[in-house]
Hints:
By secondary structure, the protein is α+β, with helices and mostly antiparallel strands. Helix content is about 45%, strand content about 25%.
Amino acid sequence: MKTLRALVHVFSAVVTGITVLAAAAALFIWLLRIAGTEVYIVRSASMEPALSAGDLAVVDRRLCEPEIGDIIAYTLEDNVVAHRVCAASASGFQTRGDANDAADAGIVDRSRVIGTVIGRIGAAGYLLSEIQRIGPAAAALFLMGLNLVSFGLESAAGTVKTACRAEKTGQETDKKQFGKQMTQVAGRG
């Protein structure tokens, strides 16, 4: 019985931790956007080791006049690319992925530059990608459901613990009261 209660407590702590982490991440991304930045999921290894696949690239939209050596985010067809500026001219920028052997074909027109990459959040893109896949509302409902299950398990464990303690000490337990509590914990009361 103690092992089961311990597992319930661990499950509850993990669910609470995930919920707090998700809320903190959402707040952090919201604050970044207010500050004039965006986050993009890095989908390839072309910028290794500066940016790895699965990272979140933090892009400052206000920094659209990069210097040679800066990493810029720019649009290319329907994609956002983050590559390093290796040359600049009046017409735009020549870029190259750090892991690529050659510069990218063509010049990036200045109008396609979203901003300059100012940081990365390692591996967080995998989580954001999954949330985008299932939808933010579904992710929030899933976390709320996990929290309800966790609360129910904690309540049931407490009720069972009370009943077992009463039984061990020789106290009479009111079986009707115990059954009523269990029904309420299960959500049917």
